[in-house]
Amino acid sequence: MTLYKYCANGNDFLLFHTLFTQGDYADLARAVCDRHSGIGADGLVALLPFSGDGIAYQWDFYNADGSRANMCGNASRCAAHYAYSLGLAPRDHSFITHSSMQAQVIKVSVNGKVVSSNLGLYRNFFALRALPSNAVQTLDSTCLPISLLDATRWFYIDTGVPHLVCFVQDLALVTESSTTTKVFMQELRKSFNANVNLAYATSSDEVYLATYERGVENITLACGTGMAATLLVGYRMYGLDSSVTLIPPSGDRLKLWCEPFAKGDLASGEQFDKIENCVKDTTTKVANFSQNSQSLQSPTANLRILEEESLMPKVDSTRSEIPTLEHINDLESHAYSGDMEVFLEGEVRCVAVCHTC
Predict the structure, then answer these.
(1) What does pTM read for this prediction?
(2) Residue 283 confidence class, pLDDT cut points 50, 70, 90
(3) Which residues does the annotation mark as catalytic?
């Protein structure tokens, strides 16, 4: 078997294609992604044939631990470059990824080493009213700034995979991941079965972030869907620009932008109405950083002002209790789509061609 190793924004992946439409490559993923006994990678991507108009292929994505994931933003860009380079697809093409709800079409475009990917519509955007007690009780509150424990900062959003997002007041919480911070993020990841993102805005169009990923069970060098989730929360809730540069722990900058998705284009007008009500009045009330009375040199002050106005979407449920994993699973079973599409764009590199036995 020949595997192509790609790097994108600090993530690395192993890719191959096959004529088989069915297969379980979990054991293979665990073996080849191992950093010590294997080749080493964040994930394994299998490109599979697909018979459908305008669809070049479908994919299976595996985390390094063998678990499947519905989506991976940076891997989608690597898959696009791989497929084009090997003559499996044209520069601009679409492929299918299968979520728990339905198949999703991912549109990609290859321009030399620069590859863009449209992750599509987000789902289930709501604010958490409180953090689970087991996450907080495991920590000494003196080890973490109280701002990190402020539940009103936390948002849940699905950008292909579920994410928790929190904009914090201290850049060091993002760039200097302490053991205590990792334990805190791990507890949240377990409680909500979602990736956990800490973000800090240096300006209206630049954000640093760190993502604790399920399947890797650690803070990773980058996470494309986490960046997408962070952009959407920042744009909706804190007045970030619609086009932002995201900087993960790898230091490799990635351009992201979001665009409105016309109501008439949605499969269900009812779905749009749900998310429209979810963020009702939020967009009109949240001013861009440049329009805020505070200076861009003090982005944390801007975050405080917006939070004091309690500008957060409502949970799409008649329940009044704190959202739990059970609650989220129930929402997922009646998933609604948002009104914004997210795009990622940056360089990818094929760094090795590996032969396994």
Answers:
(1) 0.77
(2) very low
(3) 72, 223
Sign of CA dihedral 329, 330, 335, 339: negative
CA distance 123 to 335: 7
Helix (H, G, I), strand (E, B) or coil at 119: strand
Residue 271, H or E segment:
helix 269-278
Question: What are the strands, taking DSSP E only, across 241-329?
Answer: 243-247, 254-260
> Distance between CA 21 and CA 288 in Å, rounded?
47
The SS3 assignment for 253 reads coil
* 228: nearest Cα among 340, 82, 65: 340
Q: Are strands 195-203 and 162-167 parallel, antiparallel or unpaired?
A: parallel
Reference 162, options 71, 42, 63; nearest CA is 71
- Determine the residue type at 93: H
pLDDT score, position 264: 46
Residue 42 in tokens:
């964040």
State CA 88 to chain mean position distance.
27
Cα–Cα distance measured from residue 261 to residue 123, given in angstroms and rounded to the nearest whole number: 13
How far is 185 from 195, CA to CA, in rounded Å?
Answer: 9
pLDDT at 301 over 50: no
Burial of 35 (0-12, 13-18, 19+ CB in 10 A): exposed
Q: How would you class 296 by CB atoms within 10 Å of its CB: exposed for 0-12, middle for 13-18, buried for 19 or more?
A: middle
Residue 115's identity, in one-letter code, is V
- What's the one-letter identity of residue 353? V
Interatomic CA distance for residues 83 and 107, integer angstroms: 13
Q: By CB neighbour count within 10 A (0-12 exposed, 13-18 middle, 19+ buried), where does 19 fall?
A: exposed
- Give exposure, 318-348, as e/b (b: 16+ Cβ within 10 Å): eeeeebeeebbeebeeebbbbbbbbbbbbeb
Q: What angle do CA 174, 159, 352 make, to 5 degrees?
A: 75
What SS3 class is residue 330?
A: helix
- Cα–Cα dist 175/284, whole Å: 32
191: closest CA among 156, 226, 229?
A: 156
- Token couple for 27: 């054991």
